[in-house]
Specification:
The chain has four domains: about 190 residues, no CATH class; about 100 residues, no CATH class; about 270 residues, Alpha-Beta Plaits (2-Layer Sandwich); about 130 residues, no CATH class. Strand 1 and strand 2 form a beta hairpin. It has 33 helices and 17 strands.
Length: about 950
């Protein structure tokens, strides 16, 4: 046992508890309340309140402004008249239904819900116990508080800028306390030399290409989960040394895969009370939560500068070691099967297989990292942006914009000129708080934390440079050879095969079910593909006790059977009509400009984030500050990550299930799911509503569930009863099956309406290669995000659809979320499905509108051509007239003239939106958009399926969700 290690965890826990959760309700007594929490955590009287004050000071300055003294600028907080503000858009506020009865009662709740460990293993050392105490407070304090009373989730750290919670401030303070430097080995040295932090930014790859290389749905899931698992293994190694609080992005609290990494070593060994469940049991994770990939491939951490490089190497080594361990388990698994790896002829011998396997495993991962020790003071931090000022404005980097915002704060806080410009308004010297300044005149700020945004931007720029110049090992030269032993991996086309072909497939068939189903085709596979195919059996099940539930095939997905078993041979669950005409969809969702949100380019202005009292103060003294964008801060990173995680972990899976889909990956703003072709667009709409926290989500899911068969169980049943998702306020959601002790749904923050997302959907026949469909969905997503409308882009905040027919014909369509295109699409599709309109209707519209499109030859396609002015002026009227005629003539058996009045206003709205959203100068673009919509409607109506055996679906659901 090391005393220094014990002191390290004690320092972090003291810092974490320096503010009680209910501080904002009774600021004058918060130190007394904190002392009580420290005693309950196990500290003796001499240690109570001996936390590192500088860590609190730096954390506060990184998250806030150098506010005036409280006598000049103070704000209360009750959650009702003074609400919590959305971190991405403070105009969206969450108000409590009622305030806490008394601050004293809230303080008593602090003490009652504190996660005090009641039982440790007998053989644990003191450092293990103190590490466990810290982990328990970091992971469970907020959880216990929120489950007692949901209002604890939104108590702010500073009432003057109530857009970040006390929980994030507690975490940042403890992370910085772990970076304290002293030459004395004691809990509280006589002199702390200084905080000595560094940023560590770390990234692994490959990502999208690796995930897309999939033969089956299991392969698709496996690639996603493998990357999340490796990242979790690296983060576990880091957190063992410096704590999970050190990771600022992503927010690791409530991340199932990360919690799983600590299951055996920590959570299953401690209890909150004698006779109670251990912590792992109390977390009550379901298998689908643990087996859903959700961690991004990048993280940002605050670590001690002295050991930062060693920590980066430690994380890299842990990831590579875990990857090698997984690979070895797969090889061992194959080697244990009779005859499987035996020689095949003279060329593909077992030794050659192993040689290739080891070489391919060794060079698979691409890992990059960057360490930036913090400068000694704020001036040096701001100087990091100095050289970037020489870059032309047209090529401005995030560092320049970030530095400009921070300088705006410095100017109004000090009244000093910057770059020769004297501020017109500033906080009066008599109002300035002495704690934030290093000189008597209060003209020089003393806190490095204000430079957080510049330092993180600089670290990101450095990592980008590292990734572009990474070293790699060259391929060894060899002679020329040919034959089946030289085949390449069928999915990647790069690596030499270590297995595959007919002999390999026949050997698997001899093993019988369920192993035989892993290689139903004679594809050649390299080492990485082999690992993806088998690691859930060879490693997750064998080493972690995780059993992957049955995976459907694409036919099952197309037939509304997401819980089916695609491994069962001869399974024929088709849809209505010709079973050969069933299609599935791959949905790829991605947040728009998330990089700019993370870097701070899109942060809100102070005007929306400050309390009413703070706005009034700065309006009178430094009004220019109110229009300044809030620089990114540690709490911003934590809460932005939390918002993305809430969307991914609490919303995506249930929504996909309501639409009969199967979730493959949900990593914050990045989602991949498989769905029946006829529900994919509606699912995309629902996901976007959840991402933005729209009130319409409750009714939308209810209507979707009401239209689905066998809708009384699972998440469909909750949606049918309006008990799944609701939006108490814009930008905030709640799951009605997640309530506190008062049976009140617990709200959670999502990215909100200021953020947006785009979706790409590829619809393909169930026999189409899955890899091609995934790539088509990713390409559709890029089309939705592309800014250039003239090149087929939709300019973000959009959905793009690619239809891949069996004939090889490809149809593309898409629209902005707010364009009215989806509403028009759904109205026409419903009319066709209900036989209000005949199946010929969309084809008739296409037939009469296509002649208006100019067919450009190769000679003139890149030339500037001008549309006829008469057509340009009357194009919308032509479209509307053709619709009106076709609506009256293309009648279905259930035709009703009301359909005309239902469709035409929606068509008019769609055309208006097309003009406003960038197609005002191009009548052809509007005609083309309407044709694409009709082609999509016709295809969707023809390929719509419904499950034929609802009872079997129920049994499969209950088997998959015990």
């Amino acid at each position: 046992m090391s005393n220094e290690t014990v002191y390290f965890w004690k320092r972090k826990l003291l810092a974490f508890l320096h503010d009680p959760p209910s501080k904002c309700l009774d600021i004058p007594t918060h130190e007394t309340q904190a002392a009580t929490l420290m005693r309950q955590a196990g500290f003796i009287e001499e240690e109570v309140n001996q936390y590192i004050k500088q860590a609190d000071h730096v954390a506060a300055s990184a998250d806030r402004l150098p506010f005036p003294i409280s006598q000049k600028c103070a704000s209360p907080f009750d959650g009702v008249g003074h609400p919590f503000k959305h971190p991405l858009d403070g105009s969206k506020e969450l108000r409590f239904e009622e305030p806490f009865v008394t601050a004293a009662l809230a303080a008593e709740m602090d003490q009652a819900i504190q996660p005090v460990i009641g039982a440790f293993p007998d053989d644990w050392s003191e450092d293990e116990k103190w590490r466990a105490r810290f982990f328990a407070h970091w992971r469970l304090f907020a959880k216990h508080a929120i489950e007692r009373d949901w209002r604890f989730a939104f108590l702010p750290a500073d009432t003057r800028i109530p857009d970040h919670t006390v929980w994030t401030h507690m975490q940042v303070t403890s992370a910085l306390a772990g970076c304290a430097k002293s030459s004395e080995a004691s809990l509280v040295p006589n002199k702390w030399e200084q905080l000595n932090p560094a940023f560590l930014k770390f990234q692994i790859g490959p990502v999208q290409e690796f995930i897309a290389q999939a033969r089956s749905i299991r392969d698709l899931w496996s690639g996603s989960y493998l990357l999340s698992w490796l990242m979790a293994a690296g983060l576990k190694a880091l957190s063992a040394k410096v704590g999970p609080d050190a990771v600022i992005y992503p927010n690791l609290r409530e991340q199932p895969i990360f919690d799983l990494q600590w299951r055996d070593e920590l959570w299953s060994k401690i209890k909150m009370a004698q006779g109670a469940k251990n912590v792992w049991e109390s977390l009550d994770y379901k298998d689908d939560q643990l087996l859903t990939p959700n961690l991004p491939n990048v993280f940002l951490a605050v670590v001690p500068a002295e050991g930062a490089v060693e920590l980066a190497k430690l994380v890299e080594a842990a990831i590579r070691e875990e990857w090698e361990k997984i690979a070895k388990s797969v090889w061992k698994f194959c080697d244990a099967q009779p005859e499987l790896l035996d020689n095949e002829g003279e060329h593909l011998k077992k030794e050659l297989r192993k040689q290739r396997f080891d070489a391919q495993i060794a060079r698979f991962l691409s890992i990059s990292w960057q360490v930036l020790p913090w400068p000694e003071n704020l001036e040096e931090a701001m100087n990091l942006a100095g050289d970037f000022e020489k870059i032309p404005k047209a090529n401005q980097t995030p560092i320049q914009a970030t530095a400009k915002r921070v300088n705006s704060i410095i100017k109004v806080s000090t009244g000093q000129p910057l770059n020769g410009i004297q501020p017109t308004h500033a906080v009066p010297p008599e109002d300035r708080d002495d704690r934030f300044y290093e000189d008597a005149q209060k003209t020089r700020l003393n806190n490095l934390g204000l430079g957080w945004a510049v330092m993180t931007a600089y670290t990101g720029w450095q990592l980008d440079a590292v990734r572009q110049t990474r070293a790699f090992e060259g391929w060894s030269q060899s002679g020329w050879s040919r034959g089946t032993s030289c085949n390449k991996d069928s999915l990647t086309g790069k690596e030499e095969a270590v297995a595959g072909g007919k002999t390999w497939q026949e050997r698997w068939e001899k093993l019988g079910a369920p192993l035989a189903f892993r290689f139903k085709h004679d594809d050649f596979v390299g080492a990485v593909t082999l690992v993806k195919r088998l690691w859930d059996l060879a490693y997750l099940k064998a080493n972690w006790g995780l059993t992957l539930p049955s995976m459907p095939d694409t036919r099952g997905i197309a037939s509304h059977d997401p819980n089916g078993d695609g491994d069962k041979e001869g399974k024929e669950k088709g849809g209505n009509g010709d079973p050969e005409e069933i299609y599935f969809a791959v949905l790829a969702l991605d947040g728009d400009q998330i990089g700019k949100w993370v870097s701070g380019e899109k942060t809100p202005t102070f005007k929306t984030q400050l309390s009413a009292e703070a706005v009034d103060y700065f309006q009178n003294n430094a009004p220019s500050l109110l229009d300044t964008q809030r620089p990114i801060s540690p709490s911003y990173h934590l809460q932005f990550s939390e918002a993305l995680s809430n969307f991914a972990l609490r919303c995506v899976g249930p929504i996909v299930e309501v639409f009969d889909g199967r979730l493959i990956y949900a990593g914050g703003d990045d989602v991949v799911a498989l769905l029946p072709a006829d529900t994919a667009l509606a699912c995309a709409q629902a996901l976007r509503m959840a991402f933005c926290g729209e009130a319409a989500i409750e009714d939308f899911l209810h209507q979707a569930a009401a239209a689905a068969p066998e809708n009384e169980y699972g998440y469909k049943g909750l949606a049918l009863n309006r008990s799944l998702l609701a939006a108490p306020r814009s930008g905030f959601l709640c799951r009605k099956d997640m309530v506190d002790q008062k049976e009140k749904p617990i709200p959670f923050v999502v990215p909100g309406p200021a953020a947006e997302c785009s979706v790409g959907i590829a619809i393909a026949h169930y026999k189409s290669p899955l890899q091609d469909a995934v790539c088509a969905a990713q390409e559709a997503e890029r089309r939705a995000k592309k800014a250039d409308l003239k090149k087929g882009g939709l300019g973000r905040s959009a959905v793009a659809v690619t239809l891949v027919k069996r004939s090889g014909e490809i149809i593309e369509w898409g629209c902005k979320w707010e364009s009215g295109g989806l509403e028009l699409f759904q109205t026409l599709l419903n009319a066709l499905l209900k036989d209000t309109l005949s199946a010929k209707f969309p084809h008739r519209i296409i037939e009469v509108l296509e002649p208006y499109l100019t067919r450009k030859s190769e000679l003139i396609k890149n030339k500037n051509t001008e549309e006829d002015s008469g057509f340009k002026a009357n194009a919308d009227k032509i479209i509307q007239r053709e619709f009106e005629i076709a609506l009256g003539r293309q009648k279905g058996k259930n035709w009703d003239k009301a359909i005309i009045q239902e469709v035409l206003p929606k068509l008019d709205h769609y055309l208006q939106q097309l003009r406003q959203l960038g197609h005002a100068d191009s009548a052809e673009a509007r005609v083309s958009a309407v044709i694409g919509l009709c082609q999509t409607v016709a295809f969707a109506a023809r390929t719509t399926t419904q499950p034929q055996n609802p009872q079997a679906d129920r049994q499969e659901y209950e088997h998959a969700h015990p």
